[in-house]
Amino acid sequence: DSGVTQTPKHLITATGQRVTLRCSPRSGDLSVYWYQQSLDQGLQFLIQYYNGEERAKGNILERFSAQQFPDLHSELNLSSLELGDSALYFCASSAGVEQYFGPGTRLTVT
Amino acid sequence: DQQVKQNSPSLSVQEGRISILNCDYTNSMFDYFLWYKKYPAEGPTFLISISSIKDKNEDGRFTVFLNKSAKHLSLHIVPSQPGDSAVYFCAAALHSGSARQLTFGSGTQLTVLP
Questions:
Q1: Looking at residue A47, what is its pLDDT?
Q2: Contact assignment for A100 to B99 by CB distance below 8 Å
Q3: What is the structure's pLDDT at B97?
């Protein structure tokens, strides 16, 4: 158990809809990262927050946004969903270089 | 442009033997390297890391070697156990202020045969 929690575990929704994925970091970790893993692909970095502020952006679509709240939990918002957005979404947290991952949210867009 | 490459998508090894997983990178500014293990339906689990100022780091059955001149790192697992069967990802970190973004390779599926 990494100490990082993600909800929900599974999410099935239709094209055009909007969903919110939630992540609670390990106790004391200020950095939260979001990754996308599509079928047969590696982990693609989306965005990083540090203590409530956005710190780095990767290949994140404009339809996607994130935020980190004062209690350090983070949410990833995905809107105008397309079939190609179906993937595993992982959250990770860190206090240093090593990142610790949550169990992921499997999003299926139908 | 893949900055971190794992050229072997799969590797099979007999139980008790050595498993060697390889990783190449192109960006000489990477200053920290990590290996993660991932089981199906779970998040990646941190295994072992190495700073660019070292060439070897060992933790139990796991040893990571770094060859900076060749921009190559490898993970050795000795002895290999069936429970080691998983996808292994290497990752590289680029220090940029407080943002330690990781770039991951595409992974190698290790199968340890009993």
A1: 95
A2: no
A3: 58
